[in-house]
Structure formats: C-alpha cells, structure tokens
Amino acid sequence: MTTPKLFTPTEVGDIQVPNRVVMAPLTRNRARSETNEPFDLHAAYYSQRASAGLIITEATQISPEGKGYAWTPGIHAQRQIDGWRQVTDAVHTAGGRIVLQLWHVGRISHTSLQPDGAAPVGPTAVAASAYTFDGNGFVETSTPRALATDEIARVVEDYRSAARNAWDAGFDGVEVHAANGYLLDQFLRDHPNQRTDRYGGPIENRVRILREVFEAVTDVWPAGRVGVRFSPFSNFNDVADSTPMETFGTAVDVANGFGLGYLHLVEGETGGSRDLPEGASYAALRQRFDGAYMANNGYDRQMAIDAVERGAADLIAFGRPYIANPDLVERLRLNAPLNTPDRDTFYGGGAEGYTDYPFLTADQAA
Ligand code: PHB
C-alpha cells in the first residue's frame, strides 16, 4: 500500500515538515489570569502534539488592547516570552515545529478585559452582535472606539514588537490572524469597516492595514516563515462583505506580494458548515498564491487524504480532533479510532481535558 501524501514531507515556506497534518490554532483559555502567561502546562500540552507536521499556537494577543477573552495568552511582556520559551523548547525537544498566531481582537472584547476598563478599538465605533467570555460567563461585546487614522501606525508597531517577541521566544515562524471577525478581518470587510479615511472604502484602502502589518512582521521574520489566516466566507463574530471574492482575492494578492510561506483558509463557517455562497471558490483564491495552501474546517481522515492527494490542499489543519488526540498523526496513519473531545473542558480550567487525553497504547497501535 502506498503512503497517502498527507503523511509525506513538504515545505511550508521555509519550514520543512515531515507530514501535512497541522494542529490548528485553538483558544483554550488556560494562561495565568493576571499576567496572561503560558507556563509548564502549556509546554506539556503542545509537546504532546509535537508529531504534527506543524503546530499553530492558540491565538495570542500582541498587546493588552488586543485581548478579548479571559485567560488567553499574550506575547507583549517578558514573562509571556519566557512562558512561550518553555513551550517552544519542549516542542523542539520532542521533535516538533511551532508557529505563533499573532492576534488583535479589535472590537471583539469587553471593557472589563481592556486596560483601565477602556472601550475596545475597531475600525468603526459600532458594536458587534457577538459575545465574549469575561472569566465569569459570556457577555455581549462592548461598543468600540474607532481607531484614529494616525493611531494605526501604533497598532502596526504592536504587531512588529510581538513578532520580535515571538522570535525571542524561539518560534519557527508566525501566523498573522486575519480571520474570524477580529481586528484585521474587521478592516478587510465592508460591513464592519465604515471608515472614510485611507483605511476604509474601496478594498485597496481596507487592505492597507494588512499590508502594513505584513511589512512590519516581515521586517522581523523571513517572509517564508510567515503565514496568514483568512475566513473569507465566514460570518463568525458578525462580519460580512458584499463582494468577498474580490475582497479576499485582493488580500491574497497582498500576502502573495510579500512571498509569505503559507495561506491558511477556514473553508466555510468557522467551526461550522462547509457550504459556500454562490460564486465562492477556495481554489480560485488559492490559485493567486504561490506558497503552501493550508485548508481547515471540519476535515476528517478521508477528506484530508483525498484533498491532499488530488492537490486541492498542501496541508490540512485539524482543530477539534487535536484537542482530544495528541497523537493524531499516528491515529490517522493507522486509521485508529479517535478520542472524543469533551466540550466542557474546551475553555478554561487546568490539566483536565487538556493534557490528559490518552495516546494509543502499544496494543492499539500494533
Ligand atoms: C474564540 O476564542 O472563541 C476564538 C478565538 C480565535 C478564533 C476563533 C474563536 O479565531
């Protein structure tokens, strides 16, 4: 029997990977509560999953303002860098590769999560019809303040210093989170972005902040170690666009112009249906990009094998299966049964439902 291509090596930009199974970014809300630091529990969790071709960390805020949920980690303070260093060392010792996802939530936040209880920031001062988690429960997101035109350079600088911090923490690369209704996605789409300055209006303007972020991040990192994630047809967190193929076609062109290592798309509704609107095509977006294409959303073993075999994707990112199966690559390779993820322990808590999912036993693997 020939080995399916899913289990064969490839390059993700400058990163050599032994297989095409990727651990998708997964918010787990287990960082230290006051300081937003990852610690040895995170090192254990990620290193258990080191057989993935590539690990993408949970979304990690680039600045205090970029935070939108309780207990998510940051990459803007020395102790956070030190915590992430434990993670990268553990993953590398276990033979893995790991990139950090750079995150600014924009308006998907709550005043209680912001420095000095301030309003979150966004392209426009309109609240999302969305919820966040403040540590006690789900709360409606707060009405944001619109970023002033001359303030955007400061946000871009926050991306640059977070990218530098990720370098110092020993990561193999970074992924710019431009998906799921967070800050960069809020700028890209014409429903949440109602600006009339050079960051709003036509797509050439809406994509400007993304271009500036890529400029900043690729000052720090070789472009081949930078990826980007978009969710072009997802309405998660109350974002919508009147011409998504045009919007994301342009966004992909911008990413391609920088020579980024990979393009990562959420295919369909984030964590939901893979159905596409009329006229939508991932293949057409991917065609505009020269680097690796990473597909995500609801893939099972057979779909993943087929997609890579027929060249529809270079890599497949798995989310929920990676919560419950640290040895997902081995289980997929053997077509072994998967552990079922426990929703009650997705967000918050400690080791339970985090580092205690069983690996295949020697008997099962035989
Ligand atoms: C979440 O915390 O719910 C979350 C974070 C990042 C995403 C999607 C969802 O991209």
Question: What's the short story on this structure?
Answer:
By secondary structure, this protein is of the alpha/beta class.
Superfamily at the CATH H level? Aldolase class I
Radius of gyration: 19 Å
Which residue ranges are poorly predicted, with pLDDT under 50 across at least 5 consecutive positions? none
Give a quick account of the main beta sheet: strands, pairing sense, barrel closure: 8 strands, parallel, barrel
Number of E-type strands = 14
The appropriate CATH architecture is: Alpha-Beta Barrel
- Which small molecules are bound? P-hydroxybenzoic acid
Q: Could you tell me the mean pLDDT?
A: 97
CATH fold name, please? TIM Barrel
Order of helices and strands: EEEHEHEEEEEHEHHHEHEHEHEHHH
Give the tally of structural domains. 1
Shape: globular
CATH class descriptor:
Alpha Beta
Strand content: 15-25%
Domain NADH:flavin oxidoreductase/NADH oxidase N-terminal: 5-338
Pfam families: Oxidored_FMN
Protein name: Alkene reductase
Textual characterization of the structure:
This is Alkene reductase. With 366 residues, the protein is of the alpha/beta class. The protein has a single domain (5-365), classed as Alpha-Beta Barrel (TIM Barrel), CATH 3.20.20. The protein contains 12 helices and 14 strands. It has helices at residues 40-48, 78-93, 152-168, 183-188, 203-206, 208-220, 244-257, 282-286, 301-309, 320-324, 328-334, 362-365, and strands at 10-12, 15-17, 21-23, 54-61, 98-103, 121-122, 131-133, 138-140, 145-146, 173-177, 226-230, 262-266, 292-296, 315-318. Helix 1 (40-48) runs parallel beside helix 2 (78-93) and helix 3 (152-168) runs parallel beside helix 6. The radius of gyration is 19 Å and the shape is globular. 51% of the residues are buried.
